[in-house]
Amino acid sequence: MADTHKKHVDEVSGVETTGHEWDGLRELNNPLPRWWLYIFYACIVWSVIYWVLMPSWPLISSYTTGMLGASQREQALESLNSGIAARNEMGAGLADASLEQIQSTPGMLEFAMANGRAAFGDNCAPCHGSGATGSPGYPNLQDDSWLWGGSLDAIHYTIQNGIRSTGDETRLGDMPAFGRDEILSKEEISQVASYVHTLSGGQPEEGVDVAAGQTVFMDNCAVCHGEDGKGNQELGSPNLTDAVWLYGGTIADIKAQVTNSRNGVMPTWGGRLDENTIKSLAVYVHALGGGE
């Protein structure tokens, strides 16, 4: 029986088509390039070799381990442990050195700064910012205004024990909620907020008795912030005269703080971070520009 099927030949290229046609477009029956076929066959061979040698096929509760028994998890752990060992070796001197010795010894200082910068990015930057400039409710670590002191020892203690946190030696210092707890009236809060605003050069709220606000301040606030409003680092009481505000420095912000009292929390890093890392953090933070 004669073959009645005639293959179509493209008039332009002279190549037969496969018989597939879409909207008048016909597929040419060109052979695949040899270089492409060789790569394709090589990939097939490589995949078979890989399946035999390396972990590749998932099972119900495990996977095929391959003839080589390679494990990326073990390799990653080995790399991690190697890095930790190298870091501990480089920082061995920090354990026995004082903060002042670390700061004055070029080799230890270089390591502490690098280690502290990395630890800050991993643990502190989410609150204080990657540049340590803080945000509302989180202190700027680059200025010279310190609630609990900016010396090396003070910074180290704060990092080690935290603020209003879980450590037994954590720093404690709570401001009363003068409005919420009905210690002061709304009028008294307006008066003391205006007075506090003037301590850093601001203008009082129009129509508010600033002299009365000073009296309210002396009776209720001076015990922590001092009669001059310059604060007390032993209590964590901020300096109200330097125009550095943790929760905002407008009269409305001051009223909100006096009324409801926001008291931030910093984690206790002792026990979470090793001592070398805490020392490195203390040296790094101190060097940011605002250390005392």
UniProtKB/TrEMBL annotation:
InterPro entries associated with the record: CcoP_N (IPR032858), CcoP_N_sf (IPR038414), Cyt_c-like_dom (IPR009056), Cyt_c-like_dom_sf (IPR036909), Cyt_C_IC (IPR008168), Cyt_c_oxidase_cbb3_su3 (IPR004678), Cytochrome_c_Oxidase_Subunit (IPR050597)
Heme found in the keyword field: yes
GO cellular component entries: plasma membrane
Pfam families linked to this entry: Cytochrome_CBB3, FixP_N
Biological role: C-type cytochrome. Part of the cbb3-type cytochrome c oxidase complex. FixP subunit is required for transferring electrons from donor cytochrome c via its heme groups to FixO subunit. From there, electrons are shuttled to the catalytic binuclear center of FixN subunit where oxygen reduction takes place. The complex also functions as a proton pump.
NCBIfam families (UniProt xref): ccoP
Residues annotated as domain Cytochrome c: 111-200, 208-289
Listed transmembrane segments: 35-53
Protein name per Swiss-Prot or TrEMBL: Cbb3-type cytochrome c oxidase subunit
